[in-house]
Amino acid sequence: MFAEVVRERVVVLDGGLATELERRGNDLSTELWSAWLLADEPAEIVAAHRAFFEVGAEVATTASYQASFQKLGQDAEKLMRRSVELAREAGDGWVAASVGPYGAMLADGSEYRGDYGLTVAELRSFHHRRMAVLADAGPDVLAIETIPCLAEVEAVLAELDQLGFPAWLSLTCAGTRTRAGEPVEEAFAMARDCPSVVAVGVNCTAPADVADLVVLAARSGKPVVAYPNSGENWDSANHRWTGPAVFEPAEVKRWIAAGARLVGGCCRVGPAEIAQLAGHPACL
Predict the structure, then answer these.
(1) Where is Zn(2+) bound in this sequence (predicted)?
(2) How confident is the model at residue 236 (pLDDT cuts 50, 70, 90)?
(3) What is the DSSP string of 234-258?
């Protein structure tokens, strides 16, 4: 159902879940980021999802981005499943189960570098069980997001080929290259022949780069997903955002003209910006 809708019309995604959780007063300074709230403050996650639904978002992206068996231990599977349950509880929209990159588990900003030094086989081993658990929890789609390098693209696509569950694949880029410095069109081309991939594109990328990246992603023949961050820069050493916010919801017209069908925001993009985006004529 979700894949069919994406081929037919524009779907509005949510914004940065962590951004809304922090606005509500939650401390996300731990290595688990928003994932710790799955156990300790589940009502806060529901409220944050609901804030995006109420302004026009049609998809809730779960609080599982930073969740991993390595960090959550014996409670990992239960909490990953809970992330989907909480998103369902928040509203009647679609649920995208967030599958963050290997670098998110490290909590050192390496998803913005892609310099893991791991083989494809090692990355597959990291993603294998968590992707299976999240798919089995009953979301509408997996959001495989913020992928910074071709090796991890190859790993998650191989897992999707085995899993056979619908997913979008979203990279984080600088200019028209992956964070690891590789041509991003190679990643989009790799996704072309994976039937489980319902959309391909970018997230947590500077808004100014999105239009050109959407053009490249559209060459895959897949619907395109685009949800940039605010344009601020993440200082991983000091764990803070710096620089001005330049996210302009009106830019969605350019993204859609270039082929985007899933549009929203990522880090530092809140309900106010999603409300403007959802109300833009290009999304109606």
Answers:
(1) 204, 266-267
(2) low
(3) EETTTTEEES-----GGGHHHHHHH
Token representation of residue 104: 């998110």
Is 266 annotated in a binding site? The answer is yes
Say which DSSP state 92 is in. Answer: S
pTM of the full structure: 0.95
- Percent of the chain predicted with pLDDT > 90: 82
Instruction: Report all structural domains of the chain as residue ranges with CATH numbers, in order of start.
Output: 2-283 (3.20.20.330)
User: Does 221 score more than 80 pLDDT?
Assistant: yes
Structure tokens at 77: 């599977």
Q: Is 204 annotated as ligand-binding?
A: yes
Instruction: Give the residue among 40, 38, 43 at the shortest CA–CA distance from 62.
Output: 38
Residue 238 tokens, joined: 């000091």
Measured distance CA(15)–CA(152) in Å, rounded? 24
Over residues 76-88, the pLDDT tens digits come to 999 999 999 999 9
Pairing of the two strands 167-171 and 197-203 = parallel
Structure-block tokens of residue 83 = 């992330």
